[in-house]
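I am writing to request your help with a piece of structural work I have in hand. Thank you for your consideration; the sequence and its tokens are set out here:
=====
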Amino acid sequence: MSHEKLQRTFSKLYDDYSDAIFRHCYFRISKRERAIDLMQETFMRTWRYVVKGGEIEYPRAFLYRVANNLIINEYERRKHSSSLDALEEGTGFQPATQEHEETVARLDTEILISHLAKLNDSYRTVIFMRYVDGLSIKDIAESLNENENNISVRVHRALIRLRKFIEEQEEANEKRT
């Protein structure tokens, strides 16, 4: 592939996926400027890989794999709480709905986020990738370098655990009232 065609292809890849990669990084680390840096680094590393002759069969999954590796490095570097803690503090996603619905949705989101924080990182990662990033099981498997069956099972088990956490909280709330 000529360098010019490679640039056009890569430019389209950036246009198609840069926002999604940014959101993924932002939801995982909760620092806007750092998320922008990680998104840009994701594309820089991908570009270097392609220029050196690397072949990418599934570009979306490849980009998420690079971004996830950078996020892991960021966690190791920071060695403190994940973006879920920041979301609990209200610095993250706020649903845009009418006033009453927004309050209810925010409470539901906060409850869900507090339960997500209870999941181990492998469960939390697949839940984020599946339901926040909107990736298919196949894309998640490719980006995490695992098989689709393992990812499907992990998503299923994570959802069961979330449901259990929510039911336990509802039971505890009923006992208080």
In short: Residues 80-107 have pLDDT under 50 and may be disordered.
